[in-house]
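pinging the channel bc i need a second pair of eyes. not urgent but kinda urgent?? the chain im working w is below, pasted from the shared doc
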Amino acid sequence: LGAHTLRVGHRLPKTCVLGRRCSIYFVTEGGSGVVRLSCVSGAGINTMYSDAVGQIMMGHNASHISHEFYKLIKSVGETYSKQEENEIMAKEARNLKEKLKGSAALPRNRLKEFVVRCIYLEMLGHDAQFGHMKAVELAASSKIHEKRTGYLACGIFLAPDNVFRVMLVNQMQRDLASSNFLEVSCALQAAATLATPEMVPPLVGLVVRLARHDNTDVRKKALGTLHSFTMLDYSIVMETADAFRRALCDAQPSVMACALPGLEYLIRKDANFFKDLVPSLVSIAKQIVEHRLPKEFDYHRVPAPWITMQIVRLLSLLGKSDKDASEGMYEVLVEVMRRSDMGINASNAVVYECVKCATTIYPNDALLEKSASFVNRLLTAESVSLNSKYIGIKALNAIVRIRPAIGNRYQVAVIDCLEDTDPTLRTQALSLLCRMANAQNVEGIMETLIEALRVEGDQFRKKELCHDAIGVAEKLAPNDEWYINTMTDIFIICGDLVQESVMQDLLSILAEASTDDNEDLCVRAVESFLVVLEESNDEGTILPDIVIQAIAWTLGEYGSWAESRTGAEVMQELAKYAETLRAQPNRRHTVCMLVSSIMKLTATTGECDGGVLEFVEAGTMSEDVNLQERCLQMLSLIKKPEVYVQVVPVDASSEDIQVDESLAFLNAFVEGAIKAGAPRYSPPDFDNMDDEVDDSVTLSFTPYSKP
């Protein structure tokens, strides 16, 4: 036993675990004050020690826990499969249902245990609806521990649309108006959990009054409940806003801290209404950094870091795009950063929030320079941790968004992060690299980004990086040819992660180039796409759909301009790839686009290779109706060259199509049908289809008068 003192009810730290069986050693009293060591094994617990084990598992005051309940918990813990567990709980559900039928004569402590056992049923995936009403009844108990159990069970059992929730309103009103602060606290916690939008109006007045209660814990819970109510029903904002404003001046810092989350929610909804709070928040931040709060709020010598970060977030919301409000924050932000520069995680988090605030409010050059100096210490310290590097890179990312020139000083630190083995840090460094790009370094940065895309294995990080790379290419492309080649590489690497609108932008550049007598760009794009298509055919690789669709459109429009291939050879490459995809049902749309490309080339060149014709004829027997229709259309149009050229015009992608939305050309046909006896179309009347609903009828939460 070593140096452990033997005390009655004391559990020793020695626990022997064998498989799923556990032996627990604890101290019991053997009579006449004799202390003895007893062993209880999970394989077979002696009945005489069941109460002692119950104390260990359920707490020292376990007299209300029945032996039957203890055996249930023990048997569930010793099961070896889900099937055994389901059998035990199904039997328990039957037993509880039978006992609760006659629960009117049950003592309250037994009813409480049955409700707790119903919670176990629900937790393990079994239906316990027969106990829901009993939980509502238990919430009306005069004993606080039973009331808390009832409210807890109601929060677990009752869905938001359950009518039993409405039955709790009157009980909550009585408890909120109680003189017993324990009942009030219990009701506040239940109201925050169980309230629905319909239940807020009858409860909010009572909760607002409790925000001035003498008890500190009650005031804190009242503020949390008001936050929950405001999220459910924003129309009560005028009542709750005053309570949150008063709480900022509360004598207890913990109450003030509880008001901050609710204020943040309201400020995000309407910041203008709370602009007058800036001086108060600045004053509170100064008091915190000057260590005026009690010592128990300090964390590793950092004064109230979580409260400080919350206040800084509120300042950033209030100072956004507001020069007057921001000017009152500059001094306190610098002071908070200066006093929080301790080199530990908590202080680094405070500094990071201050940097985010400095980049969100109206910009100030001196504040941004001060923020950059703190970021420099995070990135260049001798014993810097990965967490500090990550925060430093994110903070620098925010600064560069406002002042791009500042990022040039930290290129070496960013490159070091790119070579780090941590993927999260590497991703942040790549995102920062995108923001540091300019006309002079865009080509080198894009090569780095494309190489990172090739090796990135996580699809979510790859999608974010792809979006950043496309943004850099669209914003800083030195010329159209570089842009087309870069976007083609991104399409091939990222595939379906690229949005279709990006492909449309690329094709729009080619279409505009052909109309602006810049045919060289179109020719280079055709040659580049032909190389990609031929390599795919030779190697048997499958390209992403977005790449093939861009290739099909480009070669269909401008494939006859190719310098290294004839029109017939281009069609052969398209048909060869389409033949590869035709066996894949999920790629039929892409095959249809390849057939359309072949149709355009045939109209342009006036010829079609025999092998291509065989592919088209085989397509007429396809199961896909869209593909079959296109192949039949092409075979029919080939026989009528003069019609073919009109249906598939050459280089007409930029021409506007005039659409007659009134379909006037059908008027003669309609009139002829009416004269032949067809009824005239009468549109349905949608105005009278909806039943009238009386919105004035609502639920009444006013309690009945006493008889």
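so The two ends are 67 Å apart (CA to CA). and The longest helix spans residues 519-539. — does that match what u expected or am i reading it wrong
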